[in-house]
Amino acid sequence: MLYYNTRHGEKILFSEHYVNLLIVKGHNSLELKRHELLTFGQQRISLQQRATEQRLIKPAQLFSSEAGTHPTKKILVTGVAGIGKTILVQKILHDFSNCREHQSFDFIIHLTFRDLNLISKPVSLQELILRKNGHLAKHLDTITENDTKLLIILDGFDEFKHYKGCDVDVFLTELDEEGEVVEVLSSLMLGELLPGASVLVTSRPMAVSHIPVGSIDRFVVITGFSTIEICDFFQRFYQDKVLASKMFDIVVANELMLTLCYIPAFCYIVCSILKENNCLSTASPRTMTDIYVQYLLALVKSHTKNRVESLKDSSGTEPEEHLQKVLLKLGRIANQKLMNQETLFYGNDDDISNCTLVSTFLDKTSVQEPGCTEDVYSFTHLTIQEFFAALYSTMEDACLSETLAFGTEYSIESLPGNLDLFTRFLSGLLSERNQALLSRHIGFRPQEDKMQSFRTRLIADTRALCENGAYILTHLHCLLEQQDVLLMQELQPQCLRINLSDVTLSTMDYNAVKHFLNEIQLTVSEMDLTGTNITTEALRELQPYFLRCEKLWLGENSLDMEAIKLVADVLEASDILKELG
């Protein structure tokens, strides 16, 4: 099993590190107003609360049909980056090849959209299969004759460069019939090609609306680890019961880290930080950026230990200077691809392909073409790409407006919703504490002009939003990332109107709101929580702040009796609340 950031030559038994994932039936939302990872934080809670025994699905039951229903042939598995979609695919292949599960199939053919991106000419399904499975050349006719015994897995639809073009008019029906890659795959998903075959497609939510969902028999959402499975993951990671329990207790005490650990890839990141940083005894991360900076430093430390020579380039540049150069090169690629909503790139740069450190943050796929081998790279996790993109924007010797591609002027609200997390990283990396860390451990020159420029912009924008009542959540997160008392003292708006409406709020969102209201001790003219799906627990946490509100809006939320009583208590206790909606 290729494990996140596996050291060169290191192999890990699948059975030792695979942790069961909670999978529930149900169609995932096709439209996301915000960054999918941030949306997921709250969505996971509601999914797991609705996951009654009848709705739980084990990987072995994915293709089982309920009595009286037509066979389950086409399955769509969705989940945010790092939640375990590819791990689920590996689990299916592992159990099938060991004759444990999925024995109703005679063959499973596994294709990844990363590989399919390399095809630029008309091709048949037969050719697609044989490109990666040449050993099947003499047997493919036999395999496809009885297609009801065949499962085809298409992993990573969101990484397909043609994912927006699957609504095609041309369909293929024969195995050796040639067409564009997108026509072959659409014909397969719609059942025009190999109509009896089962097909499993995995995708991040952002691309699901481009899949021909009318042909899908079952929608499955992977909702990540339960708290028990987080604990289990720690035991497997550390292979030491006492140490794992100690580390898990540290995470439970840090609400931010615990929230992130529900996503398996984050769980690994947190374990890596704890392992390298001696339990975080001196600097427990307080924000998302803190976690990623510590992760970067932990991996740089781990991979450069006793490898000073590997960080010297051919020109004899000193290791620290070369390290900065490599990190900024990764950051430039991450930034360019992120702004174009792309995740894949080709490896034609020696600094990338030959550097051991780079393999820490990138996954590589090598594909054999006639006469050459193509290397395709992606960051190990979408948020790693966003972090590196922000690192480039902050540490490159260019003004922010240039690295953000917004001409001479930029503003936080001008960044698209899918860059919410990138914006947080930007703010956290332009804080004094993280600039000092990067300077001390990697040698980056503190970007004081950028820090001051961003700080001035953040203060002016937040003050304006407080006074005109526009949507403010992204700015509250930027303030949380800064962790700067002097900045909050300087902010002090004329009036305080907090608009958080029409977005489902997560635990991290409420933390940002509470941090802001703790630092700004003013009367709140208006707080709008309309359509936020606010929970009773969140209402209880925010109750002290409601007492400072003159107007409070809670419309379009499903409040139970306990929540209504909490609101009634606020109404009774507050001396200043004039309107409650």
Automatic annotation (TrEMBL):
Gene Ontology MF terms: ATP binding
InterPro entries hit by this protein: LRR_dom_sf, NACHT-assoc, NACHT_NTPase, NLRP_HD2, NLRP_innate_immun_reg, P-loop_NTPase
All copies of domain NACHT, residue ranges: 73-205
Keywords: ATP-binding, Cytoplasm, Inflammasome, Inflammatory response, Nucleotide-binding, Repeat, Ubl conjugation
Chief location category: other
A Gene Ontology cellular-component term: cytosol
Database matches in Pfam families: FISNA, NACHT, NLRC4_HD2
Location of the protein in the cell: Inflammasome
Taxonomy, superkingdom: Eukaryota
Classification via PROSITE patterns: NACHT
Protein name: NACHT domain-containing protein
Protein source organism: Pygocentrus nattereri
